[in-house]
Design brief:
By secondary structure, the protein is an all-beta fold. Among the domains are: 1-109, no CATH class; 411-561. 2% of the residues lie in helices and 51% in strands. Residues 117-272 form the Right handed beta helix domain. This is Right handed beta helix region. It holds the Pfam family Beta_helix.
């Protein structure tokens, strides 16, 4: 049975101060020296706490009772746990220390552990450097802690800093006010709630990470990370940021059930800067609620994705998340492969950028899915989504673009190299551009769709002469004027469709073809007004048409169609 070393009284043995001098991250020089002068402003309890830990044996728990304890820096001991119901207040350092990229830890954290294993920490603290710094430690649990930093400091260290650790659990922790509040939409201050580098098997659960100057949680070169059921809010950059080392070893991230609110940048930012090397992250982002990210005092920042920013990654699933009132795309995907975006609900767009492998969107609700002009992808699949607007700019290149069983609003503009499959969708548009416009495509299959335009002068479906090998089969297409206009598409096939025009006139046509190039018309059903008609086809110019069971209505060459 573990012993418990209990501090039942509290006094200073002498006016001796403890100073921890931390060198490089893997080498620590630890010395106890006499203070040149006894402290007069602060009572220094450092030696008292350190003596309790030093006297304990592996397996012991040092219990510190109620009270306020002023400490500078205490070194942890292998196998010795700390449990305190009191409050630790960190004494100010002898010299000013600031966070920088070349020095990401202070010389005097409140509790420092190097190569210590099998211990737990429970305490409350107000600190001006790190509350906890663990260096090459294993099997450590940080539970039921409340850590408050210095909210006036511009270049603050992290609340908890982990370097090269393994099997660390942070449970029911509150980490806040490490760094000054961000007040500018462009500039931000340093100070992260929990910062981990080269760390493995880290779990952060049921914690409240808030009002830190920079990120709530930051990971660099880490693997096997679980972030579950936390409230991460009001931080000066992203709620969760994952950064990458030079080796691309990052794996197995599980980010589930968190609320990410009012962070000044992205809710979750996973950004591999070496975009040519797609990191096989094997991550799941699921069941998170994101609200009001990407703002500073009502002003937009340049970041602020509602659900996640994903750059340079493979094998990520984004599932069952909700996003509200964030200033940037809910989901932003760039230079990625094997990304599944499933059953998310957002009030902002999904944006897809760059050179991509296979990206799949399934059963999501987005106001818009936007592809930028630089997109070159092997396969993009949109399946069973509710999307108010699809933006496909000119010049994209997609080997296979698949739109299946979606509810789509507005005009769908296709001008790309590659193959298009448009199947079983419901497409409605009030745009003067119509419902579907095919300007350029190498091959296309449109089947089983309901396509409707309500604009009085718009075509439901336009097929340009640069759109080749297009099959339009068994769709229901309705328009105020003309359902389909063909401008000389090579080998266009219109087979088994129901085509209905609201215009009830002898001069009206549901299908118009100008200079047809091997146009095939087979077994379509035509309506003008509410009546079925046998003269729903209009041809202009010269060309070749193959018809089976169709009637022909030649149009006057001066007609404006």
């Amino acid at each position: 049975m573990n012993k418990q070393l209990v501090a039942v009284s509290f006094f200073l043995l002498s006016a001796i101060g403890l100073k921890c001098t931390l060198g490089q991250e893997k080498k620590v020089n630890h010395n106890i020296v006499k203070a040149k002068n006894a402290r007069t402003k602060y009572k220094d309890d450092t030696k008292y706490i350190q003596n309790l830990i030093n006297k304990a044996q592996p397996g012991d728990t040092v219990k510190v009772p109620e009270g306020i304890y002023n400490v500078s820096s205490v070194r942890l001991k292998n196998g010795v746990s700390l449990y305190s119901t009191g409050l630790f207040k960190q004494l100010p350092p002898d010299t000013t220390e600031n966070f920088s990229f070349s020095k990401q830890y202070s010389e005097s954290p409140m509790f420092y552990g190097e190569k210590v294993n099998n211990l737990s920490l429970t305490f409350n603290a107000g600190v001006n450097r790190e509350a906890i710094y663990l260096n090459n430690c294993k099997k450590v649990t940080v539970r039921d802690v409340k850590l408050k930093g210095d909210s006036t400091k511009l270049l603050s260290f992290a609340g908890i800093y982990l370097y090269a650790c393994d099997d660390v659990n942070i449970v029911n922790a509150e980490v806040s006010y490490f760094g000054k509040e961000r007040n500018d939409p462009v500039y931000y201050q340093r100070g992260t709630g929990i910062r981990a580098q080269t760390t493995h098997n880290l779990r952060i659960v049921n914690s409240n990470i808030h009002h830190n100057g920079e990120n709530g949680l930051f990971f660099h070169g880490c693997t096997d990370i679980a972030i579950k059921d936390n409230y991460i809010h009001h931080n000066g950059m992203s709620g969760v940021q994952v950064a990458f080392g030079s080796m691309g070893i990052e794996r197995n991230y599980v980010i589930t059930g968190n609320t990410l609110e009012a962070n000044a940048a992205d809710a979750i930012d996973i950004n591999n800067p070496d975009e040519k090397r797609k990191v096989d992250l094997q991550a799941i982002i699921q069941g998170n609620l994101s609200k009001n990210n990407g703002w500073v005092k009502g002003q937009k920042t340049r970041d602020g994705s509602g659900i996640a920013t994903l750059v340079g990654l493979r094998n990520v699933t984004v599932k069952n998340n909700r996003s509200q009132e964030s200033n940037r795309p809910a989901v932003y995907v760039r230079e990625c492969d094997a990304i599944d975006v499933l059953s998310n609900n957002a009030d902002n767009v999904a944006e897809i950028v760059g050179n991509l492998g296979h990206i799949r969107l399934y059963k999501n609700t987005f106001p818009e899915v936007r592809l930028l002009a630089s997109v070159k992808a092997k396969k993009l699949t949109l399946d069973s989504n509710y999307i108010r607007h699809l933006s496909f700019p000119n010049g994209i290149s997609v080997d296979s673009l698949v739109l299946f069983a979606n509810d789509l609003k507005g005009n769908i503009n296709v001008n790309m190299d590659g193959r298009l499959i448009l199947k079983d969708n419901k497409i409605s548009s009030s745009s003067p551009k119509g419902a579907v416009t095919l300007w350029k495509v190498n091959e296309a299959v449109l089947s089983g769709n309901q396509i409707q335009t309500s604009h009085q002068d718009a075509l439901a479906l336009y097929v340009d002469n640069k759109a080749n090998n297009v099959l339009i089969k068994e769709n229901k297409i309705a328009a105020s004027l003309t359902c389909i206009k063909d401008s000389g598409s090579q080998n266009l096939q219109i087979i088994g469709n129901t085509l209905a025009s609201d215009l009830d006139s002898v001069y009206a046509s549901t299908v118009i073809s100008v200079n047809p190039k091997d146009l095939h018309l087979n077994n379509n059903i035509y309506y003008l007004g509410k009546e079925k008609t046998d003269h729903g086809i209009g041809l202009e110019g010269e060309g070749k048409v193959f018809m089976d069971g169709e009637s022909l209505n030649l149009l006057s060459p001066n007609r404006d169609n």
